[in-house]
Amino acid sequence: MRFARGRRGNAETVIKITGIAGAGGGTGVTHLSLMLANYLQGVCRKRTAVLEWNDHGDFSRFGEACTGQTGPRTCYGIQQVDYYPGAAAGRLMECQKAEYEHVVIDFGIVKEMTCVELMRCSTVWILMSFSEWQMEAFWELMRSEGFSLKESWQFFTVFGSEESRTEW
Q1: pLDDT at 119
Q2: Upper half-sphere CA count for residue 79 (Cβ side, 13 Å)
Q3: Alpha carbons 139 and 73: distance in angstroms, whole number
Q4: Beta-bridge mates of residue 52
Q5: What average pLDDT is seen over the chain?
Q6: 123 exposed, middle or buried (CB, 10 Å; 0-12, 13-18, 19+)?
Q7: What is the DSSP letter of 26?
Q8: How large is the greatest C-alpha to C-alpha distance in the chain, in angstroms?
Q9: 88 phi and psi, to 5 degrees?
Q10: pLDDT digit string (tens) for 111-127?
Q11: Helix (H, G, I), strand (E, B) or coil at 147
Q12: Which DSSP helix (H) or strand (E) runs through 17?
């Protein structure tokens, strides 16, 4: 069984894992994770889970606002998508056993430990900003020892000027 590339629980079930991370804060990782999950479930009709694999706490606030349920919860079901606040590797394994068809992982900001976890994903999206005050976060990521860029990773940019794009 290959952990990140998906497994076959039966002839029809192949789990895809998409990891989304940002080179710096404020690039829209959580927002994109929510939109992707809703697209996968609503349009593609894939049974989808989203894991908040960071310490931001956004999923708890999101879950409480959408469901009215308060207090610590391990999962919020919203529009047929399951959201797991404060998740980690054990939760990913549980999702694989539950036979989701797609798991989206919100890594938040890329850190050295995140790079190891990104290797588990079949698809990786890195968000970065071309805003002058945020580009240094991307360059710091590229220079860090623990970062290993993979050719299959996709980079998306938000914000910024034409000069910043040209510089990059």
Answers
A1: 82
A2: 14
A3: 37
A4: 106
A5: 80
A6: middle
A7: S
A8: 51
A9: -150, -165
A10: 766 777 888 889 999 88
A11: coil
A12: strand 16-22
- Predicted TM-score of the model (pTM): 0.79
pLDDT at 76: 92
Q: In the block, which residue shows the tokens 């989304």?
A: 20
**Pairing status of strand 102-109 against strand 16-22:** parallel
* Nearest to 164, CA basis, from 130, 123, 140, 141: 130
Contact between 83 and 137 (Cβ < 8 Å): no
Look at residue 57 and give its three-state secondary structure.
Answer: coil
Q: Which residues of 58-87 are buried (b: 16+ CB within 10 A; e: fewer)?
A: bbbebbeeeeeeeeebeebebeebbbbbbb
Report the interhelical angle of 29-42 vs 58-67 (nearest 10°): 50
Q: Which two tokens stand for residue 3?
A: 């952990």
Tell me which residues of the chain have a pLDDT lower than 70. Answer: 1-13, 112-113, 131-150, 159-161, 164-165, 167-168
pLDDT tens sequence across 77-109: 999 999 999 998 789 889 988 889 999 999 998
Q: How many residues does the chain have?
A: 168
